[in-house]
Amino acid sequence: MIDLICERLRGVDTSGLLRLPVSGLVLGMDRDPLAKVTLLLFDDRGEACAVAKVARDRGSERALEQEYAALCHLACSPIAGLRPSLPAPLMLERVGYRLVLVTTVIPGTPMTVGYYTPGHVTDPAAVRRDFESAGGWLSAFQDATAVASVTLGDELFRDHIQPVLARYRLQVGWSDWEAEAFADLEADARALPPTPMGLGVVHGDYAIGNILVDRGALAGVIDWELSRPAGVPMTDVLKFAASYSSFLDRAVPPRGMVMHGHPGWRPARQRWESPSGWANFTGFMYGFHGEGWYPDLVRTFVSRHATRLGLPPAAVPVLLRVFVAEQATVLANRTYARGYQQLLHELHDLARGNRFVTGRR
To answer: If 0-12 CB within 10 Å is exposed, 13-18 middle and 19+ buried, where does residue 110 land?
Structure first.
């Protein structure tokens, strides 16, 4: 497949490349049945020059088509200085009966490499730098790609929240507590003051694994298959904070109930242990609703971006619940869908001040 892709690239417009690829290696292969095989391609000097994603079956082709469309849209956007941090689309073609997307390569390593380095996520200064780096790029990107605005209240609910709830109902399901939770969410959304909120390009999966770092600075953002051209910008703010929070116990495995460097983890674990064992549950709740230096950092990060985007404080808990409901519909992985469903349940109870979660305790 690598040889076929290299050969095909010789017949398309590759003006975005200084040198054509002649070889490659398998960079990643996800076990998810809808995932792709990622190939890193090298030129004749042995330098990485392109990345190819190969659909494993027809079910995963849609994601490649969506990413190609998103990257083409960005290639025509006035993003000036941000362009080096974005992969440029080179080809979307069928090669050897497989759909293949090829883009330019961005030098750097995923933020997850530093994240999982011993001592990193227990160091407040190092974690703060990660948040500042990701937040700085996101601010510049959102300013550059702003396209329109929506008014909080009825318009926000009709155009951007109701479609999420419709997808949730179709893909996840509907029960009595969800009917109650979404009725409350609708009431809270419609009650927001009629404030204009900008819309723009949303990455859709602005997570630590999709952010590349080079010598301590943010070098690029990859994997744009969930992007949309006119979405709610807080989505990416919340996704970054959620992804950073969700894997803390993998980066620093707790001993018993104690996590080194995070004294607030123990009470968070006692209060928010996942009813189904979903590992991300406690980390998410710790980050957004726990106590300690790290939850303070998360809340400061979220509130500063909300202020930058002109949002009143009351909009944040509303958009957080919408974000969680949407995450339940994004992945085909049922474990994640069920986990976000449980998070939505918990956030609904917190919003209503309920001590016990209906149907769980």
So the answer is: middle
Encoded tokens for 324: 């969680």
pLDDT in tens, 345-357: 999 999 888 543 3
Residue 258 DSSP label: B
Q: Which of 208, 236, 231, 224 is nearest to 92 (CA)?
A: 224
Closest CA to 351 of 327, 316, 304: 316
Asked if 203 and 82 touch (Cβ cutoff 8 Å), the reply is: no
How does strand 196-202 pair with strand 146-151?
antiparallel
Q: Is the dihedral of CA 290, 292, 297, 300 positive or negative?
A: positive
Across the beta sheet with 228-231, the strand order is 146-151, 196-202, 228-231
Q: Half-sphere exposure of residue 60, counting CA atoms within 13 Å on the CB side?
A: 19
- Which tens digits make up the pLDDT trace of 155-166? 999 999 999 999
